[in-house]
Amino acid sequence: MKQVSEYIQANKDRFIEELIELLKIPSVSADSKYKGSVMDAAEVVRKSLEKAGADKTELCQTAGFPVVYAEKMIDASKPTILVYGHYDVQPADPLELWDSPPFEPVIKNGKIYARGACDDKGQMYMHVKAFELMMQTDQLPCNVKFIIEGEEEVGSANLETFISANKEKLKADIILISDTSMLSMENPSITTGLKGLSYLEVEVTGPNRDLHSGVYGGAVANPINILCEMIGSLKDENNHINIPGFYDNVLEASANERELMAKTPFNLEDYKSKLGIDEVHGEAGYTTIERKGIRPTLDVNGMWGGYTGEGAKTVLPSKASAKISMRLVPNQSDEEITEKFKKHFESIAPKSVKVQVKPHHGGEPYVMPIDIPEYKAASDAIIRAFGKEPVPVRAGGSIPIVALFEEVLGLKSILLGFGLDTDAIHSPNEHYGIENFLKGIETISYFYESYSNSK
Ligand code: BES
Ligand code: MN
Ligand code: MN
Fold first, then answer.
1. Predicted pLDDT of residue 308
2. Fewer CB atoms inside 10 Å of the end CB: C or N, the chain?
3. Burial class of residue 263 (count of CB atoms within 10 Å of its CB; 0-12, 13-18, 19+)
């Protein structure tokens, strides 16, 4: 493939400027205050695909935010790559912890700082630019379709309906996604698995109103104390999850797979120091790489109740709540685990309180075999761009639509991500390396070629 790096070199300033314009749009899907901006982002993405050379672009309406669809069909007998990404972003708060405003992108030390810089606007936009490059240099080797959604960060509920209703339109041979991370620029990797997710909210109710913590304390159940005890009991001293049947369907990694994982270039000291922690924490008997990639986990994501304002207020609250996520691995299912959690959590509640478990959105896990030609094509593209063979790594994050792509469209997804775990996605000061952005465009361009040649 000719001119790839030349084209990127000659156009990189414009690529970055365009990404910065996209990052200025606060497309927060979770917050209705930003509805107009989410719609604006969809239109900007559609336009960018039209300008890049798509013959057909549309904003497909759903019950929620539109799906941006675009295609360039060069020859029906050639293979088709379906690119997926998302233009919505997580809420930016806590705002006070950002060094610069989340929707006023700045470049510092070779990185673009903004909400969505990495997840996923920066990574999604690499695909728009790789497509532009292939069109402009007249070397698109296969057909390409894009679906860029605006509800990934809120569970992709309407995308499922969209793909089920548009199977013909989305007909393709492989799905290509950049919405994950790699180990480092020195040690490129390919994501070979995503975790499933069961996310729920629990509410513990004690007395019918807030009480004086002296007058009633010690005599009536305090829902916050009880909730803490209940959550505390969900794991044993080995950080093994205590919910009955929780591990029933967990596919244990073979000795061979574990041996391979142990070879992952990963520096634990560096990992700890970057997080400011003295020790890691997790399930006994497993390495950090294994805990992240192949073991299911349970975490409280938020917890509230009682008085949290300034100063002291002596109160025994009526209610306490928590949001809990469980990350799942093959062959656990969201529904199964949600049900097991609910049953267990209700069963451990003392009679002195009432418990309510409310499930939110979830998703199923996904694994990508490494012995298929599509993996090899991705690996070859990375070798060409980075000069090094990538290692397969199972991710801890979730993209629930990926399992549905397989179930509904019968298609595998290649997870070719260029973010780093330290890019602070979902956190203040999210950023994306310009080098990662440009290398990503280069690798994606090579993938088109190696993939097309492998067919
Ligand atoms: N891009 C992330 C998922 C991700 C990040 C996978 C890093 C692997 C490595 C995605 O946007 C995301 O945040 N997903 C959510 C799930 C969703 C249902 C809200 C997640 O993982 O929490
Ligand atoms: Mn994402
Ligand atoms: Mn995300």
1. 95
2. C
3. exposed
Question: For residues 75 and 84, what is the distance between their CA atoms, to the nearest angstrom?
Answer: 21
Q: What count of residues does the chain have?
A: 455
Atom of ligand 1 lying closest to residue 400 CA: 18
Angle between helices 373-386 and 434-454 (to 10 degrees): 140
pLDDT score for 57: 98
Q: Which helix (H) or strand (E) holds 325?
A: strand 319-328
pLDDT score for 455: 87
pLDDT value of position 240: 98
CA of 19 to the centre of ligand 1 (A): 21
pLDDT at 256: 87
Q: Which residues of the chain have pLDDT under 70?
A: 1-2
- Going along the chain from its start, the domains and CATH numbers come out as 2-194+365-454 (3.40.630.10), 196-250+296-363 (3.30.70.360)
Taking Cα atoms as reference points, which of 421, 425, 418, 431 lies closest to residue 106?
Answer: 431
Q: Whose CA is nearest to atom 20 of ligand 1?
A: 398
Closest Cα to residue 402, out of 182, 41, 149?
149
- Alpha-carbon distance of 250 to 238, in angstroms, equals 17
Return the bridge partners of 148, or none: 68, 85
* 8-state DSSP, 266: -
Q: Reduce the DSSP state of residue 231 to 3 states and report it.
A: helix
Residues with CB under 6 A from ligand 1: 119-120, 152-153, 155, 179-181, 194, 197, 361, 363, 395, 397-400
Residue 417: CB atoms within 10 A of its CB come to 23
CA 89 to ligand 3 centroid distance, Å: 7
Rounded to an integer, what distance in angstroms lies between the CA atom of residue 417 and that of residue 440? 8
Give 397 Cα–ligand 3 centroid separation in angstroms: 8
Q: Report helix angle 4-23 to 121-136, nearest 10.
A: 140
Of the candidates 116, 100, 86, the residue with the CA atom closest to the CA atom of residue 20: 116
Q: Which residue is closest in CA terms to ligand 1's atom 18?
A: 155
Please state the pTM of the whole predicted model: 0.94
Closest CA to 148 of 174, 117, 120, 114: 120
- Tens of pLDDT along 70-92? 999 999 999 999 999 999 999 99
Q: What does the block give as tokens for 126?
A: 């690499």
